[in-house]
Amino acid sequence: MSVEHVNVGEDVALVDLIDRLIGGGVVLTGDIVLSIADVDLVYVGLRLVLAPAHVVEDSVRLSRPPRRLEERA
Amino acid sequence: MIVLYALVPADQVSSAATAPDGLGILARGSVAALYDEREEVPSTSRQDILDFGRVVNDISKAGPALPVRFGTVVESLGALGDLLESREAEWRERLATVAGHVEIVVHAQDAAAPAPTPAAPGSGREYLMSRAAARRHAEAMYDDLTAGLSAHCRESRRLQASEEVRVACLVPAGDTESFLAAVESWAGAQQGRRVTTTGPWPPFSFTEKETG
Questions:
Q1: Nearest residue in A to B123, CA atom
Q2: Beta-carbon separation of A22 and B123 below 8 A
Q3: Bridge-based pairing state of the strands A2-6 and B193-201
Q4: CA nearest B196 in A: which residue?
């Protein structure tokens, strides 16, 4: 058995904070029109998320199981 | 453009002097939005995300607040006003629910859990069987964890995680010690369990009513 409480600022806490800031919170559904020039908006379903592309790409990558190419060989 | 930070009870921020960090206030009915009006698209560096988090944390310390997801913008105050009017009832209910509570995130792992993939490369069937066994184990651990903590959480939400069970709990602000004791008790009930908790956080995971 092991229990650890991580104080804010330590690594796990920092990851949790960033995860919750980007992945939690109030989400506005597509009833608001965004009109921002020269910015890549990422649409996730009806939800509008303005996020750096690498964050979204990482999120998508993490949500997929690893491919096992050797099984196909 | 209008960068949103949080939604709060309107009577909590009745004047510009009470808005933290120089944010603007727009109230409709019983709910107010705290925002920053900017000319340029907000930057999305790690430091900007953390700065946003600091402001949201300050807001939450002052009273009930629903953090808005980082990077959320609306085009005008008119659009924000329309939004507040259309969702006031929903947000009023959520603000009442989170009032006096904090979010604590629990990360639970079990050394006895089956590996999600076989130790040695095998057939596709073995791979799928391993994943299914790991998933069943995680589901059972999630059920057991939430049952063990339910008396200490007003609400809980399962968070996405690939190699552990991760749960956000809405805990009365004054009861965090007893909550952590319950976590410790749960972890101690079975050998091999390893638990990490983080927080207290603003109620990031409880801004919407649980569905299903």
A1: A71
A2: no
A3: parallel
A4: A4
